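[retry 2/3] Oligopeptide transport system ATP-binding protein: previous attempt timed out, resubmitting with same input.
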Amino acid sequence: MSAHAEELVRVDGLVKTFAVRNAWGRKTGTVQAVDGIDLTIRRGETLALVGESGSGKSTLGRCILQMEEPTAGTVTYDGVDLTALPRAERAAHHRSMQVIFQDPFSSLNPHRTALQNVLEPLLVLAPGDDVRERAVAALAAVGIEGDAVHRRPRAFSGGQRQRIVIARAIAVRPGFVVCDEPLSALDMSIQAQVTDLLLQLQRDLDLTYLFITHDLSVVREIATRTAVMNRGRIVELGPTAEVFASPQHAYTRHLLDAALTADPVRARARLERISARPDPVGLEPEGSALVEVSPGHLVLR
Ligand SMILES: Nc1ncnc2c1ncn2[C@@H]1O[C@H](COP(=O)(O)OP(=O)(O)O)[C@@H](O)[C@H]1O
Ligand SMILES: [Mg+2]
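[retry 2/3] Oligopeptide transport system ATP-binding protein: success.
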């Protein structure tokens, strides 16, 4: 198999700049949310994207999904440059790329039943005589069955609501799913169940995941490779076990250090202390680039 057949998503030179405005709407500056990223996501893998809040993870995910127009650079999906396609043709790819957000409450329509919520995107993206059966099957695959499919979101627990969101994403049979902090709003005990569900669906449906999180413990369990992001750049990328066992970039070590404090209250205090430092890691040197330090393990230098 060629390298190209192996890669499902390819990002080249991606930049996303936002205008910063004051309370009166006047532009006072810009923020470089994504600052020149090259990345490939391989078919069938889970690539974890980790980094502190504000590092640009969601923006990168949204640019890949075409929910955000990149300022520069290209996004290729299954060999097709999405950024070069006319808007109308891009829509055909919306089915292949789905997203699961952190907050199941705001992602579901509260006035519609679980079944109606799953039917909605199916009717738009993959219509057919059997949409209802497909919606019911997707809900069954996440454990929502029988009369429960006719309940509205508020009748479900947080974990069940996230299951409905997952059913809606998989119902259209995507190839690629961006999971953006999908567990962060859930209780610890529920997190493990939803993680297992995501892994099982990946096997059953041949899914490729970009898994965005600031929780490193889950990354170890599920990610094939891990990319570490700081200030809009990827500072380290490699096989998950290797990045955790032998972190090469100061920022990766700083993240792992904060996460290693087992007590969550102390970990938070420690992270806040580190974040409060004016510049915990320092700016990347001018002209820095990802350098391969061992096979498949890249570090920004
Ligand atoms: N729509 C937007 N308008 C202006 N600034 C934004 C917008 N979205 C994100 N940003 C800024 O871009 C940076 C990266 O944000 P984000 O991608 O959400 O980071 P993360 O997901 O890692 O927390 C932050 O400084 C954030 O404030
Ligand atoms: Mg985010």
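[retry 2/3] Oligopeptide transport system ATP-binding protein: The longest helix spans residues 188-205.
[retry 2/3] clearing retry counter.
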